[in-house]
Amino acid sequence: IVIEMECSEEDENDTLPKGLFWRKSEDESVDYFGAEYKFIRPLHGNDVVESVDQLVEHMHFMNAKVKNVDAGFHLHLNFGNQTPDDAINFIDAVSGLYPILLQHVSKERHNNQYCARYRTKITGTDTKFKPSQYIKHCWPGIDSSRLFMWDRYYWIHPYNMAGHKKTVEIRLHHSTKKRDKILTWVELWSQLADSFQQNKFTEINSQ
Predict the structure, then answer these.
(1) CB 87, CB 165: distance < 8 Å
(2) What pTM value is reported for the model?
């Protein structure tokens, strides 16, 4: 997985201690001193827990603010060994969980333009989202006719992430400094992805 965590900070000159799993970059979409923390590399297993512990500790130390309508917690699932159709089929499969997932995120993320619900039909009169502008962010080989009006700010979409490539990005969750919330969201999506790959998704969906 890859995690991006947006926040605003008291100190814009902060530098991360050596040895962290994270790198920090400026984020102009977040008020005050906007910062975005990203995994330096894809992680799995115990590395995820250790890296989240380090991130939460550092955000508390910096008095980072996460109560911002534009601040999100973005989770990328590694689909590097999957086909473009696998990514689209996974997104189609989990789209039915959208109303349930909304119950676990801040109300500020409901109807938010930065984690919008994607449309399933392209209409000639709808020009808010332009697939042609999104294709450059998408995986090589994905049929543009299946993009459904996707935009890079939709709540879930295939994303060709620099340095990691071929991920499915989930943008629905609000930014948070709470360790348990982060790890619960990671565990949920890891299990959904694993179950989908093992052809057990019907069972998960029914539960």
Answers:
(1) no
(2) 0.81
